[in-house]
Amino acid sequence: MLKIAICEDEINQRQGIVSIIKKYLNLAQKQHKIVEFSNGEELMISVLDFDIYFLDILMNKITGIDVAKKIRCINEKAIIIFISGIKDYVFEAFDVRAFNYILKPINEEKFKKVLYSALESIVKRDKFIIAKTISQKTKICLKDIMYVESEKRKLKIHTTYDIIEYYYKLYDIEKELSGGNFFRCHKSYIVNFKYVYSYDNTFITLKNLEKIYISKYKLNDFSKAFMYYLKNEEQ
User: Which superkingdom is the protein from (predicted)?
Assistant: First the structure.
């Protein structure tokens, strides 16, 4: 179930936000729980275990920025969306890695797009594959996979924390990773765009400075797909 916190000191504004969220989550057939807070103090003494936070910025005593800083100390993955009548705090919002910044008066169409984008981000974040060996099954989150390497009949899943090896076909895992940020750049490699630092005609250099091969036949398609990925990441 999706858990959402709304922190807004103006009751009419808060109820309006709740109404919009319920409308579009019901249309998306998404089970959800919404908890309302009338000030930052209430939210800061709560469990702070929500998937999405909608925060007003200018509230009595504690600002939405201060609340967001507390959230980030406890919940790194949470999506924080600011709602404010002024633009002055946009750069401070960047400092707490805000997902978006919605200006009042709220445009419902804009709000819907931000909400659905947040839902999509959560789905992508939580996706995983299962690596099966004779003795165990290992859950691997897609966001942690830097690249996949095929060596004979065995796959090596290079993650941010380990290398997981098991017998599987690269073709089959390519299908499992489709629709995400992954690209088959070589007959033996699939790379996650998230970890690409640079590339040339022969190699893709990852952010940890590892290099993997890129096929000359894949170079043009890779370049287009990577540019598309970067463009969408900036939005």
Answer: Bacteria
Q: Determine the Cα–Cα distance for residues 56 and 10; give it in Å rounded to an integer.
A: 9
Structural domain 128-234, CATH architecture:
Beta Barrel (2.40)
Q: What are phi and psi of 61, to 5 degrees?
A: 65, -70
Distance set, CA 24 to CA 19, 108, 180 (Å): 9, 10, 24
Give the Cα separation of 54 and 64 in Å (integer): 9
- Number of Cβ within 10 Å of residue 204's Cβ equals 25
User: Model confidence over 107-140: pLDDT tens digits?
Assistant: 999 999 999 999 988 877 778 899 988 888 999 9
Give the end-to-end CA distance of the chain in Å, rounded to a whole number. 27
Sequence spans of domains, the chain: 2-125, 128-234
Which one-letter amino acid corresponds to residue 177? Answer: L
Q: So what's the pLDDT on residue 235?
A: 47
3-state secondary structure at position 58:
coil
Per-residue pLDDT tens over the stretch 36-47: 999 999 999 887
Topology given in CATH for the domain delimited by 2-125? Rossmann fold (3.40.50)
Q: Alpha-carbon distance 221 to 199, whole Å? A: 13
